Every structure is written in structure tokens, then in C-alpha cells.
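thought: fold this chain, then report.
action: predict
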Amino acid sequence: MTRRLDTLQAALESSLGAQIQSFVRALGEITITVSAADYPAVARKLHADPTLNFEQLIDLCGVDYSGYKNRPWEGLRYAVVLHLLSVAHNWRVRVKVFAPDDDLPAVASVTEIWNAANWFEREAFDLYGIVFEGHNDLRRILTDYGFIGHPMRKDFPVSGHVEMRYDPETRRVIYQPVTIEPRENTPRVVREDHYGQN
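observation:
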């Protein structure tokens, strides 16, 4: 395993060079971070370079780093993370790219390189509001078309903005403002003076 990771690390460094902003090798995995500007070129190299040959995209997801590990986050807020597999070389890599603008997070689409990215990018757009430039059908995939906001963002209210219910008078489903009042749950603590003593 170590020799394979050594070979993969050397191939990544040789092919991508200065395009790698950050290189992390931990727990038997390699994670590289690239800039949004270099992301399309890096994705093409990862796929087409025969020394890398990452022909399969396993997963693509969005991440909201605000409050990461329950601490203030210094840096860009939204990232896209890809997990790639090379069947030919039997190795994997994780690629991370941060969207350069927190107000309108956007990165290039990789659907022309890996067509499996199509629905993954739509999901990241729907849940995090990350725009994938060049995606030919970027629309919501999990939430309703009239849904307001992006529910996986850490600043999205837990109860949401609207609720849906069946109205027997109009005999259809209607949307209305949320009627749930937020409450704070305080755990009940039971204390006994001699708990655990016989």
C-alpha cells in the first residue's frame, strides 16, 4: 500500500506540479487541493494522463466549511470535493476545490470529462447553491422547484422557510409560512447523591 501511494504521489506531483495548492497524505489516502482557475485543466489531466488514468468519478459533493469542527473557519466557505478511481492502476485520489466567491459560489463543471458528475453537480447546486459553470442542465434534483434557499448550508434554518400541507377546502397541497415555533431543548439531568454506591 505504501509503495502504491508513493507511486501515485510521484505521478501526481510530476503531472500537476505547481497546480497542486495543498497535498495531504493521511490514513492511506491522498487529498489534493487545487484552485478554481486550475480545476478544469487538472480534471482533464487526471482523466487523460496515462500515468494517472482516473477514468471513473466515484463521488462529487459540496461542503460548507463555515463553523467547520465547531470553530470559526478562516478562508473560503464553499468547496467541491471529488473522489476519483483509476481502475487500471487500482488507486484513488480526493480532489478539493474552493469556490472563489462566498456570495455566489461557482466552479467549472466536469460533466464533459466524467458524465457521472451530472446528477452529483445538480445535487451540490440544489443543497449548497454551488453553481457549476458549463453544466447543461443545472436545476434542482432533490427539493421542489419552488423551494427557497439551500438546505445543507449551515445558516439555513432547521425548520425551513415554508411548510407544505393538504388543504381540504381547495383540495390540493398548499405552501404557507412555517408555523413551528422554535424552542430550545434542555436535557433533563437526574442527580442522585449516592448514585453508583452500594
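thought: worth noting. The first strand starts at residue 20 and ends at 26.
final: C-alpha cells above.
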